[in-house]
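Narrative of activities, Objective 1.

The group set out to show that a structural description can be obtained from nothing but a protein's sequence at a throughput compatible with the screening campaign. Below is one input-output pair from the validation batch, recorded exactly as produced.
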Amino acid sequence: MGCSIPTNPQSPNISPQAEAIVFFNDMENPPVGVYTIRQFLTDWNGSPWELGIANGHVDIVEGPEAYRGKSLRVLYLKDKANYGKSGASWLIPLKKTYEEIYCAYRIKFAPDFDFAQGGKLPGLIGGAGNTSGHKPTGSDGWSARMIWTEKGNIAQHVYHPDQSDFYGDVFPWHSPFAPNTWHQVEHRIVMNTPGQNNGILQTWLDGILALDIHTLRYRDVDTLGIDTFYFTTFFGDDGPSLGPSKNETITFDNLMIATAPITH
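Output recorded for this entry:
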């Protein structure tokens, strides 16, 4: 069920009070080395499935490779792209459905990282968590994952009923990732009033507002909300794409989901 809630909300990594924290994992529980299925089953609120862990694409690192203490590192194989072929994916089911949620995590791309044509990064979803060309109907689901694009540019990849593209809409952030640098990203989702275009998507990079949208329609029924964090990361998108020119890694730490702001 993830790591225990931090007891010191004034820690440099923690902004909200403990009662606002829905889920927190600082990656300190697993032993250093290959991340195992047994450990996975205890760390992520009972995710019903995984991709990449059983294939050895995930490990726990410490020392200079970690943010602080231990961190989780994902491997992306040379020339491999698209869901299930490289990287790793799993779900973090939330204990209930929310109308508003913040999530944040630390992320570092390896030195000289080959961003290629881009790739997926974790984000919030609801209902069916529509992806891969499944346009939401307004009553089935939605998704708002983060992505990187060429040269490390950042964007939010959103599936919503009003999307203009078959594969969802891409909303650019204000600045790119830098390889070999620890960044902190934060997302805020506020569900729209059913049938109205007043849903909110906000993001922050290292505490600075990077995206601010208040006109989204995620749903047409009040039974849909925010119920899952989708930890998914791989090279490529929903169409043809190229993998990296060499094996690559991205390291993650301090994943927090909360009902209050985390980094600002």
